[in-house]
């Protein structure tokens, strides 16, 4: 495994976030451990030539990136151990997210639900606040319905498949998940197999928000994608929400929540005649959840 990294300015980090969103670049991340630290651009690749190609493409657009970034090579075991050391099981209510390599030593109480995961290069280890906010909405939804098994769930931007598989394992039998990143779809399908879920129990499809929601309706939509993208696709997200359903949005920073609400509220009011929107906070992140009446 090859790591490429360099320190970048806050302004460049903002532009790169938009770039990563526009072009699928799942091998890259922006890292700041403590508030006072500078931001590091970091990429992980199996092949160094692939890293060099993507970095060179980025430098064409962002000329302030250094010509000679830092390179580090890990052997596969060292890399796997470093990655695994960061990820712990997490549970909320009766739902447990367990790294696959902890399958044998993590005890799931009888009658509770475990989802086994290896997110690999996809987003969705279960460690992020934005994912956890969605788990809470999923459990609220499950708890609100006794006949819940007939409810349809969509996971928009499924990453590792963590939310879609949680829905399937909690008993929802019409779960449709999509992501525009082919690597995320590959990882999701692999995770579905780790969980012994039949293919038909949760569909994982490569699609973007512009086409993934066409002709679809769901009683619960979970969309943990960044605020700007949610705003662009607000009409399709509201259109895909069934009457009486729930549209749960995440990936929203606290300072962005009002602007997301301002885009969604009039659409919800126009479609459902009433606006019931709730928001929860976890660290610097918020969700925004619409209850369609
Ligand atoms: C923050 S991750 C969420 C992953 C997972 N659902 C979770 O909650 O942990 C966002 C995911 O949305 C995908 N994504 C971003 N923009 C998208 C778009 N326009 N259409 C579909 N997927 C998108 C990304 O590839 C990424 O896997």
Automatic annotation (TrEMBL):
One of its GO terms (biological process) is methylation. Its EC number is 2.1.1.-. It comes from the Bacteria. The keyword Cytoplasm applies. Its main location: cytoplasm. Transmembrane segments: none annotated. HAMAP family: Methyltr_PrmA. It comes from Cerasicoccus arenae. It catalyses: L-lysyl-[protein] + 3 S-adenosyl-L-methionine = N(6),N(6),N(6)-trimethyl-L-lysyl-[protein] + 3 S-adenosyl-L-homocysteine + 3 H(+). Belongs to the methyltransferase superfamily. PrmA family. Keywords: Cytoplasm, Methyltransferase, S-adenosyl-L-methionine, Transferase. This is Ribosomal protein L11 methyltransferase.
